[in-house]
Amino acid sequence: MTASSAAAPRRGRPRAFDREAAVAAATRLFWERGYEATSISDLTEAMGIRSGSLYVAFGDKPTLFREALAAYGASPYGDFVARAFSEEATAFGAVARMLREAARIFPDPSHPAGCMTINAATNVSPANAEVQDLLREQRNANLEAMAERLRAGQRDGELAADADPAALAAYYAAVFQGMSQRARDGATESELSLTAELALGAWPGTSR
Amino acid sequence: MTASSAAAPRRGRPRAFDREAAVAAATRLFWERGYEATSISDLTEAMGIRSGSLYVAFGDKPTLFREALAAYGASPYGDFVARAFSEEATAFGAVARMLREAARIFPDPSHPAGCMTINAATNVSPANAEVQDLLREQRNANLEAMAERLRAGQRDGELAADADPAALAAYYAAVFQGMSQRARDGATESELSLTAELALGAWPGTSR
DNA sequence: ACAATTCTTGGTCGATCGTCCTACAATGGA
DNA sequence: TCCATTGTAGGACGATCGACCAAGAATTGT
C-alpha cells in the first residue's frame, strides 16, 4: 500500500468532476429506484459525466453500487441505527431511538423514502443475485447485532429474564422494515411515529 | 358484450397449452423476481410457449402481470387476508388470523416467499411506474379497509374507545409488510409466529 | 521541451429487452 | 370441400442494456 490516501498531487489530467458529489448522485438514484432499474445512462446523466469517466473512476456497476451503499451507510440517513446502538445506554433505549428516528427520517422528502438497504434490491434478476445477496446478508447481520445487544441487555437485567431476545429482535426488525415499506407507500412521519410507539408497547415487562 | 363467457365452441385452431397453468407459471415467476426482472423470454420458457402465443393469448407484459396478480389474489396464498376479514367475527380475530396465517404462508417453501403484492414491484424504472402505482394503491387500499374494519369494531365496542383505529391499522400493516420482507430474507415460520404474537400483544386493553 | 500518466469524449460492442410480423397448422361453419 | 378463423413457430424489429476502446486533452515529473 503506497500512500495515495492524502491529497498528494497526482500525475496526469485531473478529474473534471467532484467525485463525492457524483457518488452522492448515484446513491440517490440507486436508493430511489433500486439497483437494476437504475441504468448506466441514468447514472451518467445524474452524475454529469460520460460512461468512460464512470468506468475509469468507479469500475463497473456493482462496484459503484457498493460504493454508493457505503456512502449511504456513512450519511446521517444511513448510520442512525448504528449510532442508536452505540450511543444509547440501554437495549430499550437503542430500539426506541431506532424506531423513533426511522419515523422521522424515512418519510423525509429531502431524500428517497425508506431505507436503502431494505429497498434497493428486492426485485432482481438472477444475473444480479450477488447484489441481492449482499443486501440480504447486511439486513440479517443487522438483525443478529440487535439480537446480540438484547442478549447483553438481558444479562445486565435490562430485559426480563423470561423474554426471548432473538424473537424480540426479529420482531423489531420486521417493524423497522415494514416502516420503510410504508414510507415508500407514502406514510407520513406522524403515522410512522404512532407505529413506532405501538411497537415499543410490546416491550416485555413494560419496565423499560 | 356478446356471450363468449361460457365454454362455447370457438372457431379456429384450439390453443395447444393450458391457459390456467400458463398463468400460474407466470404468477410464480413475477412473484419470485418481480415485474421488471422477469423478461418475456423468462416467461415463455416457464410457460412452455412462444412469444407469439403469449401476445395472442395475454396481450402485452403489463396485461399479463395484471392477470397473474388476479390469479394470485384468487389463490389460497393470496386471498387469506380477505378471507380473515370476511370470515372472522371480531376485529381482533381478523387481525390475529391475518398475522398468524401470514407466519405460516409467507415462508412456505412450496411457493415464492412473502406476499406478491408487497414485493413484486418495489424496484421499478420510471417506464413501468404504472405497475408500481397499481401495487402501491392496492396496498394502501388494503390498509384503508383494515382501518375501516377497526373503526366498525370500535363502534361495536370490540375496541377500546380511546384507541386509534387508523394508527392500529397502519401498525399492523407495517408488521405484515415487514413479515413479508423477513420471509424473503429467510425467516422461518417459528420466527414469524413469534413476531405475530408480539405484534398482537400491542392490541389495546389486552381485553381482545 | 518532452515523456509519462490520467481523464474525457464519442463511439462501438454483443446481448437482451418488449413487441410484432409472416408463414403455416388446425379447427368449425357453410 | 373450401373458407374463415384462431393458434403456433420462428424470426426480425428498433431500442436499450452494461461494458469497453481509441483518440485526444490536460496535467506532473524530468
TrEMBL record, chains A, B:
Residue ranges occupied by any HTH tetR-type domain in the UniProt entry = 16-76
Put simply, this protein is called TetR/AcrR family transcriptional regulator
Instruction: Write down the InterPro entries for this protein, in alphabetical order.
Output: Homeodomain-like_sf (IPR009057), HTH_TetR (IPR001647), Tet_transcr_reg_TetR-rel_C_sf (IPR036271), TetR_C (IPR011075)
- Does the record's keyword annotation contain Iron? no
- DNA-binding region location: 39-58
Which organism's genome codes for this protein?
Catenulispora yoronensis
Keywords on record = DNA-binding, Transcription, Transcription regulation
